[in-house]
Amino acid sequence: MRKPLWIMFLSIALITMACGINFNLPVTEVKTGPTQTDEINIPIPESAPPIDLDLSFGAGKIKINSGAENSLLSGKAIYNVSDFKPEIEIEGRKVTIKQGNLNIKGFPNFEDKIENEWDFQLGKTPVNLKISAGAYSGQYELGGLSIQNLEIMDGASDVNLEFSEPNLVDMDTFRYNTGASNVTLEGLGNANFATMIFRSGAGSYKIDFSGEMRRDAVVSIESGISSMTIVVPAGVPVNLTYEGGLSNIDIFGAWKKSSDAVYTQDGTGAKLTILIKMSAGSLELRNR
Predict the structure, then answer these.
(1) 232: nearest Cα among 209, 264, 206
(2) What angle do CA 61, 58, 169 make, to 5 degrees?
(3) CA separation (Å) from 39 to 66, 78, 113?
(4) Which residues contact 185 (CB under 8 A, 6 or more apart)?
(5) Ranges of each domain in the chain
(6) Short-list 92, 98, 93, CA closest to 51
(7) Residue 30 — φ and ψ, nearest 5°?
(8) Whether 107 contacts 59, CB under 8 Å
(9) What whole-number distance in Å separates Cα of residue 213 and Cα of residue 190?
(10) pLDDT at position 18
(11) pTM across the whole model
């Protein structure tokens, strides 16, 4: 379920009080104004690719797709707090888009509905894409792009990410670090990465390796107390090693248990090697 911004800030406050930390904080009135829409178009830098594209976002909604014609990035930012106006920095082969700082001295008082949304399209120029965000919801459709490295770091989030089409270049590393979140990653076979590193707190996670795997890949997953589902198409060879506390592990389809901590699937072609470390929770191994 998508969370309004005021709920996200309230959650932070409740966690603080639950930890027994008492503050006499002043209250800052957060003023909203008319909804603003900034049209954004960033031309392709003259520097040799890959371009380092960094997106830095606070709380709200992000949507990223392909579709920028003759540009590195195009789209719009919608907000009704003036401090949320995005700032753009271009220096050589590095392009940064960051949310303006909301100056809060104390606990925020939101009397009106806060709007903060980025809706961006990327072009096919090779990029190292980095996304940093706080408590937010994200919709990422990254198929058919040219992503050489992908890094996502966020707090409490609700994210759906998919590669519906093959990545146009070899990806070196896909890193995802998140807090207590609800994250679904799909079509990862199309991402064409050599290494994937996933780190998370407690939450619900689905990691789906469907797609066209073109080379062997190594995946490292570490999670807190969580519900984790791993999906691999039948016919893709997999060797999965599990380390962790007490967890329920259920296998379906072509998966089989080779030993107490090793689960495999027979197949041909590019191979997945997966290491999962979990504090506790449940793990399901499924086929697409």
Answers:
(1) 209
(2) 70
(3) 16, 9, 22
(4) 161, 162, 176, 205, 206, 207, 208
(5) 5-286
(6) 93
(7) -95, 110
(8) no
(9) 6
(10) 40
(11) 0.88
What's at 172, amino acid-wise?
A: D
User: In the prediction, which pLDDT does 100 show?
Assistant: 81
Q: Give me Rg for the CA atoms of the chain.
A: 21
- What is the average pLDDT score of the chain? 89
Helix or strand holding residue 181 (H, E): strand 181-186
Compute the distance between CA of residue 176 and CA of residue 199 in angstroms, rounded to an integer: 6
Q: What value does the mean pLDDT take over residues 125-138?
A: 96
Checking if the pLDDT of 179 tops 70, the result is yes
> Exposed (0-12), middle (13-18) or buried (19+): which is 139, by Cβ within 10 Å?
middle
CATH architecture entry for 5-286: 3 Solenoid (2.160)
pLDDT at 118: 98
228-257 pLDDT, tens digit per residue, is 999 999 999 999 999 987 678 999 999 999
Half-sphere exposure of 127 (CA within 13 A, CB side): 25
Torsion sign across C-alpha atoms 158, 163, 167, 172: positive
Extract the tokens encoding 74.
């195009």
